[in-house]
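Lab intake sheet, docking and co-folding queue.

SAMPLE TYPE: protein with bound small molecule
LIGAND NAME: adenosine-5'-diphosphate
LIGAND FORMAT: SMILES
REQUESTED OUTPUT: full 3D complex as structure tokens
PRIORITY: normal
SUBMITTED BY: R.K., bench team

The fields below were copied directly from the construct record.
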Amino acid sequence: MKPHKHPEHTDNIWLALEIGNSRLHWALFVSETLYSVWDTDHLPESVIQQLAACQTLNDLLEKIFPSHQRTNEQEGYGDNSLPLFASLPPLLVASVVPSQTAIWQSYPNISVITLDQIPLKGVYPTLGIDRALALWGAGKIWGFPILVIDAGTALTFTAADANECLVGGAILPGLGLQFATLGQQTGQLPLVEMQNFLSLPIRFALNTTAAIQSGVIYTILAGIKDFIEAWWQLFPNGKIAIKGGDGTLLINYLQALYPEIADSLIVEQNLIFWGMREITKLL
Ligand SMILES: Nc1ncnc2c1ncn2[C@@H]1O[C@H](COP(=O)(O)OP(=O)(O)O)[C@@H](O)[C@H]1O
Ligand SMILES: CC(C)(COP(=O)(O)O)[C@@H](O)C(=O)NCCC(=O)O
Ligand SMILES: [K+]
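RESULT FIELD (auto-filled):
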């Protein structure tokens, strides 16, 4: 991260937090400039209460920004010109885990984004705020119509047309969830770990672990290809963006199996943060 000029005021520092079902996803903004992004596990209520008691940005970041994820510049937070002794920044939250949202209420300066704050048209009341924000962020940056694939705990497809109106989407168990379910809900199947496999598994496998990898991976890839082809039937010039913890892994597999599809995808982990940034312009 190249050093930015020192932010003029400290009051335009804000934190974005995406609460997913597996992890927390963080972004540190100065006005509209994204300084750092990192992931953590869900935080216990006790830690969240400690955060509320922090006096400075530095104290806060020490508790939520694991040092191994910081940039290498003297363990900076993506930029060593941050006014670390500024007071606690405002926290903008997008959550799909109501129990987590509830325990974050103790943070002093929190705003939880709701669907009505997103200008996306045609949404339904239970649409995931993460899906709406990622779609809004992707569309505002790369243009509508656009399809967003989020390879998170759940794998989701969420699409909008040229009028920034929801076309609709789909939800299915993500890679990790599928491996976990097979390992936990059966008598004999092992829990296949989600280490980053390098090459595609053998499709007609000759051992149990490879059979699980093949079943989960090839059907998810086929499903992604099928939805993308259906999307291109509806919107031949429609763009496609992909995010999520399994995004990079799936992109590598797609590159091997369906290169023309892989080459057409916009890979952008920060889609939700771009969506949140758009919302701050409306606040
Ligand atoms: N360090 C990690 N911790 C948890 N899940 C991870 C990690 N790295 C990759 N993943 C994969 O990413 C998926 C979760 O994606 P993520 O976008 O973090 O989830 P969510 O936003 O739903 O919390 C899991 O199914 C898992 O396979
Ligand atoms: C489908 C989701 C669980 C995905 O969340 P994630 O996998 O990122 O934790 C989330 O978007 C959600 O709770 N959606 C609500 C239902 C809907 O979107 O129709
Ligand atoms: K997610």
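REVIEWER NOTE: The pocket of PAZ (ligand 2) is lined by residues 20-21, 96, 126-128, 130-131, 150, 152-154, 156, 171 (CB under 6 Å).
SIGN-OFF: pending second check by T.M.
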